[in-house]
Amino acid sequence: MNENEYTVQDLIHNQSFRCMVKGTASAEEVERWNVWIEKSAQNRAKAKEAIAEIAGFTFSDPDTPDVEQEWKRLQKGVSQKKESESQSAAHRRSSTTETLTWIYRIAAILLLGATIGVGFYVYSPTDTTSTRVEKITEEKTVRTGNNEHKTVTFSDDSRIVLNSNSTVTYTLGGESGQTIKVVMEGEAFFEAESSSENQEPVFAIRTPDGLIKDIGTKFLVTVERDRSRVVLQEGRVQVSTDGQTKTDKNITVADGEMVEFNSTEVLTEKEVNTTFFTSWATGFMQFDQTNIQEFAGFVEDRFDVRVKVVDPALANIKLDGGIYFRSLEELVRSVSEVADIPVYQSRDRETVFIGNKQ
Amino acid sequence: MDSNVTNKEHSVDKEEAWQQFVDGDESCFKHVFQAYFEDLYGYGIKLSRRPELVRDCIQELFRSIWERRESLLHIESPNVYLFVSLRRKILKKVKRRRKTNGALDNIYETGYIQFAKEDLIIRDEVKLQQKEEISAALNQLSDRQKEVVYLHFYNGMSYGEIESILSINRQSVRNHMYRAMETLRSLLDTKIMKLVVSFLIIFFIS
């Protein structure tokens, strides 16, 4: 039988489907039904009905609030947010990049004036030029709240991933291949897709302490109260602290390095496991002879939980290799499975125990 | 990751509306909201019995979807994405509320809720005793088992989707389902009867 044509009755009497509902199907059978159920809304509806018949019960529909009212509320929320964002973006324009804006304004006026002059001389006037001028000065602000990440993807596939409670304001050049100017607070991960013939950096990031420029690379920038930090996962990055700009002394950050600086000097420059810093954005962590205590420290810093290594014998275990994960639970589970160590989470989810609880 | 086009070609309504929306048709946003609202609310109200909190979380979720609409193309399964996101939001709020309100609030937010026979709606002819037995059997399930059963039965989620929503591995989904069905087996497999269970449980995620 063509599996697309299963009826509800077919499913009810299908041994494999019944096994799937009861949790006794093989992994292959489960996979086959996964594909079938996910294939279409009709299949899902048939599966639901058959599951209810096989199990003998189903759940009633929830007592749902008025969807139309909820939609109106959402519309209101979205439009309010839009307004406040455009207001704050306007505010930012006037404060943080005032100089830049004035340069653009002057350029725009000159360009407009020149075009109008030429236009009057040769053709009748059009508004094409003013549209171009608007494009040149395009500036956007993206913010994140608590426990929120946002990704900004550019047309060349370069990306900025914002960690929670962060803000980036970026100004796009009018032409593709021009450097994207970024002013930021908080923490963001940058992935620059630079073509080999293009010598210009993809991003130029302004922090209160200095300027960071990439050269085809993946890196993290964190702005703290008294310092800025760059962690370079791949490629090359150039940092000029505000104090050094005039003397033309730039610091080049190498692969696997972390550099911390304030407006006058470089505070730290050392090799680190970069994936410990960037995993929130990339979902990847590389272990290189990493001991359990280091791992515990990382989990505490990154996920805002307490981690207790309850079995001292585990201290000597070293982790090697890379893992992909999407959540704390996945990370901890993977490590637990790979290293064969029991890992528990407290009922309030605020503490992770590594090793058997005493 | 590329989305699997062949898997989507037969889908209608919800997923199509989602696809059009992420492809840039903003007029589909309302359709997406309306199409997913009931399922999300139904699931959310099982995670927390507070309608206000669930409604707020759904509002937040769709506000963020609107703001991030240009970066949602990579999402392979909107179903999973929406359920996972709502689950996270609700759990965060519940956790925060517990911290703020202390023990007084726990009675509403932990897994003490029991299935009552009054919560079972009978369809077809099922005796009162069976109704009580079913509710008793359902109450014996662990919270995680209840959640797996609910997603599979009510939302028609595949094991793969449940795996992603709960961040557990596929074998665990099968184990939870097997244990749940074993617990219910003596009552439910002997003859085909169909109860509609209307229950106000919440799953306490430990």
Structure overview:
The complex is a heterodimer of chains A (358) and B (206). By secondary structure, chain A is α+β, with helices and mostly antiparallel strands. Chain A has four domains: 3-55, no CATH class; 68-135, no CATH class; 142-274, Jelly Rolls, CATH 2.60.120; 283-354, Phage tail protein beta-alpha-beta fold (3-Layer(bab) Sandwich). Helix content of chain A is 39%, strand content 30%. Chain A has ten helices and 17 strands. In chain A, the strands form three sheets. In chain A, strands 2, 3, 4, 5, 6, 7, 8, 9, 10, 11 and 12 form an eleven-stranded mixed sheet that branches. In chain A, strands 14-17-16 form a three-stranded mixed sheet, with helices on one face. In chain A, strands 13-15 form a two-stranded antiparallel ribbon. The longest helix of chain A is centred in the first third of the chain and has 29 residues, at 67-95. Chain A is globular and about 75 Å long. Chain A starts with 7 loop residues before the first helix and ends with a strand. With 206 residues, chain B is an all-alpha fold. Chain B has two domains: 12-104, Rna Polymerase Sigma Factor, Chain: A, CATH 1.10.1740; 111-197, Arc Repressor Mutant, subunit A (Orthogonal Bundle). In chain B, strands 1-2 form a two-stranded antiparallel ribbon. The longest helix of chain B has 24 residues, at 78-101. The two termini of chain B are 31 Å apart. Residues 1-12, 102-125, 190-194 and 197-202 of chain B have low confidence and may be disordered. The chains are: A alpha+beta (358), B mainly alpha (206). At the A-B interface, helix 2, helix 3, helix 4, strand 1 and helix 5 of A face helix 3, helix 4, helix 5, helix 8 and helix 9 of B. Strand 1 (57-59) of chain A pairs parallel with strand 2 of chain B, so a sheet runs across the interface.
